[in-house]
Amino acid sequence: MIGLISATAAGAAARDRLAAAWPDRTRVYEGPVGDAVRAAFAQCEQLVCFLATGAVVRLVAPLLSGKTADPGVVCVDEGGRFAVSLVGGHAGGANELAREVGEVLGAEPVVTTATDAADLPGLDTLGLPVEGDVAGVSRALLDGEAVALRAEVAWPLPPLPVAAEGSYTIRLTDRLVETAERQVVLRPPSLVVGVGASKGAPVEEVLGLIEGVLREAGLSAASVAELATVDAKAEEPGIVEAARRVGVPLVTYSAGELAAVDVPNPSDAPLAAVGTPSVAEAAALVSGGELLVPKRKSAASPAMATCAVVRRPGRGRLAVVGLGPGARDLLTPRAKAELRRASVLVGLDQYVEQIRDLLRPGTRILESGLGAEEERARTAVEEARKGRAVALIGSGDAGVYAMASPALAEASDDIDVVGVPGVTAALAAGAILGAPLGHDHVSISLSDLHTPWEVIERRVRAAAEADIVVTFYNPRSRGRDWQLPKALDILAEHRAPTTPVGVVRNASRPDESARLTTLAALDPATVDMMTVVTVGNTATREIAGRMVTPRGYRWQEEPE
Ligand code: SAH
Hints:
- The chain is an alpha/beta fold.
- It folds into 5 domains: about 1-110, 3-Layer(aba) Sandwich (Rossmann fold), CATH 3.40.50.11220; about 125-185, no CATH class; about 195-310, Nucleotidyltransferase, domain 5 (2-Layer Sandwich); about 315-425, 3-Layer(aba) Sandwich (Cobalt-precorrin-4 Transmethylase, domain 1); about 425-550, Tetrapyrrole methylase, C-terminal domain (Methyltransferase, Cobalt-precorrin-4 Transmethylase, Domain 2, 2-Layer Sandwich).
- It is about 30% helix and about 25% strand.
- The protein contains 18 helices and 28 strands.
- Strand 17 (about 345-350), helix 13 (about 350-355) and strand 18 (about 365-370) form a beta-alpha-beta unit.
- The two termini are about 60 Å apart.
- The relative contact order is 0.06.
- The structure holds S-adenosyl-L-homocysteine (SAH).
């Protein structure tokens, strides 16, 4: 919840605009400003104060307890010109909130945390627990000093400007290590603790066993991703409470799933009780990984708890990102976030150029020229399988005649895949032409590079007969010039010569051009590979210079 506090009439007006924009996220605190700030500080994750920064500093200073606990505080000035991230820029989310508030109110976000200003992700914003000299290593990154990354576990980190050697170090490890000066330790969620317990096992026994086993094995509890057990123990209080106290989810598997897992130490007791020869080892090993600690029993007598620890392989992350047709403001915020999240970017050189300025320092760019599609797809998947965060980019929507399918055809289920939709050429062109896609429509690629012409022709014919609006992608190239006239002829067998046709070249790019013509008048020579051609159905009309396909067919009745 975001608490909103204001003092003046202008402040209250801006406050009300924000409250109206985010009805479910905000709560207005009325009354004397001091009391309101104190109440909101205690009750909310974030505050937006329509007050002078000085006033807010004085009010919140006595309430501050620490970076990780304090709410994020944003101040908006009386004129509504600036949204200042005052407290809790990273952990409290105030930097992000200042940007969001700025967008709603038309105010300039003001962010002063150094890593944001230098466009680096803060070490405390990577989504992983971090220990050690965070301030020292952050400063070194900012000052461009050599910082080495020592990763013992593969993990899809965002880009960091790291070097092979350095007097500062970022360690990525799930092992217990001394944190030295000039060193931070990032904790990947790489450990799975399998747990078994007899009915009524006390939480102290379960938790004591887990903590003792981790300590003895030299493993950090901060790297535990989840506890795992058998379905029959999903409600066992000692296990449920242990997971809650470790602060991780409890996942459970059926006895059948666990019985199928090969384990070093099966036994008869769980087989009789829950129907699998192993609970702790099997539950930890279900989704693969390396058994670091085989089954151990608690020291109590009789022992009521068992546990085993597995290190699961780091899963890479492949984001397949559509960049939209060209213009920066048609690139979605989600696409932008994924581009900045990736440490490896794979794409066609001309598309990389389109977004290069958005990439964070340290991003590795693997660009290639036209035609190397399969190779790009393979490279992206290979990089992700090494545990990296990869973005594979394509223009428009990356799933439309583009990289998503070859990449996912290569990908195995050992990586995470995230798709980000983009504005495809047909939509970008449609918006320029008017409303050509107001009724059923289809896209057809006229490229017979990968598809026999007979197949393409059959589809054009089907669209013609079904009176569907058609957008042709890849309509014509230097070596491929007879396909478009042929396709238009087929459509003309079922549509009047006066049927509107929209031709849009380089939609949303600097040299954008668009023409509205007709089936009979279209000159194919004016069409190239940077163009889409949209042919209306029998109801499509030109109205005031715009191409309009009605939602139904009632215009058919009107005399020509
Ligand atoms: N993934 C892309 C399409 C790739 S196929 C998308 O979703 O838009 C390449 C064809 O798309 C080009 O030959 C052209 O027909 C069309 N195209 C892509 N971008 C375009 C743009 N900005 N303006 C017009 N046509 C475009």
